Fold:
Amino acid sequence: MPSVQPKKLKGRMFSVQAALPKYPVAPLEQTMKKYLKSLEPLLSEEEYRHTEKLCKEFQNGVGKTLQNKLLERAEKRDNWLSDWWRSVAYLGFREPVVINSNPGVLFPKADYNDIQGQLTYASRLIAGLLDYKVMIDEQTLPVEHLGKNPLCMMQYFQVLAACRIPLEKHDDWTCYPPDRPGAPKHITVIYNNNIFEVPVYGGDSKPLTTSQVRDQLSEVVKQGATAGEPIGLFTMEHRDNWANVYKKMIQDKTTKAALESVQRSIIVLCLDKSNNTMTDARTVSGHQMLHGRGSSYHTGNRWFDKTIQFIVGEDGYSGLNYEHTTAEGPPIIHLMDHCMKYISSGKDWSPATDVKPPTKLQFNLTQDVSDSLIHAKENADRMVSDLDLKVFVFDEFGKNFPKSQKVSPDSFIQNALQLAYYRHHKKTCGSYESASIRMFQLGRTETIRSCSTESLEFTRAMMDSNVSKQRKAELLRRAIDSHKQYTNDAISGKGIDRHLLGLKLTAAENNMEIPELFKDPAYTFSGSWRISTSQVPAKSESVLFFGPVVPDGYGFCYNPQEKCILFGVSSYKSNSVTLPAAKMAELIQDSLRDMRDVLAATMKANL
Ligand code: COA
Structure:
């Protein structure tokens, strides 16, 4: 299914939509030049010369044809990349969405520790969601900006009542937007592995009040006292396995209707039991949000295909998990920030009338499907046990320190991640940071290749006791400037990775031979993101996290606040090359401190 758009663009949410520029196709020479520069810190002299030769041949040969075809595609579409991207990055991706693609988010801990508090918190969260939904439905959300530039708001229109559908080889997704007849008025609630359809609007179409939602949730808890079959585990499967089971499940009319109810629902709410954890509860709850902690804990209490799953624990920890096909972190985080504010606002709706009670959804599983559930459970537990995570707050400074030094906080943090990696691995690696290209119509992300010649020079100098603090500070500032320049290029359509992907896909789509440039080991190596990162800022002290994208890599996500930085760090336990997440977290903190010290010392020296 292509991108879902409102039938009519009306309110302020889309007031600048038509005026947004189209995502450009960068000039070929520019991309080749930047691509080569990005390889400098990663390749030997000999490897570099080889790739340089391939770039020249490509630029003067088949690259020209591909570039022209790509320009033709761009001419005909709102965005030449968006459909390809949804397909290549998400729907065509066959590994399990959990850990590999769906991020988890941990909210600030709430002040309750029992089921009564849990239900009250969850109902406030849902009331806040419905308040936010009004702004999507009526298109009154304010337009988001990056600096002074307005951003495309279409992702916001696709995050509610949306779901991924498993199909063999290539999934599909579905969305039931508010401006179509029969728009959904219910959420899915999962409790004790039982799945419920729960109306959150009355027969009068009014949203339920907090206490009305709470009554609905109490009824769910009553009806769900006995544990259900953990069929949510299927959504953690390899996509082809899940597609195969799904095909069998929809043969049964009742089961098909139950699955459709989940797909159509506005969101999924997972009511989890307590983790009963005293040590590092933040990290334990991070695992809970990312993958559910396995079949003995909460993983069966999920539906990972759903675009938004709110997860509310009995112990005051809550968060969410989201399926990435339709949106990046920022729209989800804005929604979450709105709900956080709403929870403590004291606002509420006036009571709705004619409220229908929750319905427990019926899944009739054949023996064959039940057998598959045993495999799904084993696979899920294997994945869960391999993922190492550390969620922490670095509280010695936040954005305030780099700002006081007149440098970009994001570029400062990215260089700290480079330094942390170098400290242990004594080399650098392909490094990914997501940059928003929502300045363009239907824009998603571009890659910031955050490892550069400048960052490598800086990290080497930091580990060399013979280099003066003054020199280290100079090299740090240069590395930060280089990263900031790359960022500015990436967000304004002058990045390289999406363009290179577009050229490669153009060749495939036209049944042309894949050019040598894309068979070059340097292309694979440099795009093998051992450092995979993203900044996801939030107003609240929430933090997002995701799994590494290669076995010998790390996932780093951070939310820089004014006076602290929240981090989620991940690695795989089975990998012998990478460090445990907690150890890497220590190196990140050491790096941030050392970088502060060199900048602060040189500032004093310059006074
Ligand atoms: N001196 C003083 N202050 C500076 C500065 C400097 N040289 N450079 C930047 N700052 C300030 C900025 O004005 C900004 O101020 P604010 O806190 O008042 O808003 C702040 O520092 C942050 O700027 P910076 O750290 O440079 O980052 P950014 O906000 O421009 O973000 C990206 C950089 C790459 C994260 C952003 O462009 C982006 O693309 N975000 C989306 C990423 C995404 O989609 N992630 C989700 C993937 S799932």
About this structure: The longest strand covers residues 387-394. The chain has a mean pLDDT of 96. The pocket of coenzyme A is lined by residues 146, 328-330, 399, 403, 406-410, 434-436, 445, 487, 491, 534-536 (CB under 6 Å). DSSP finds 19 helices and 18 strands in the chain.
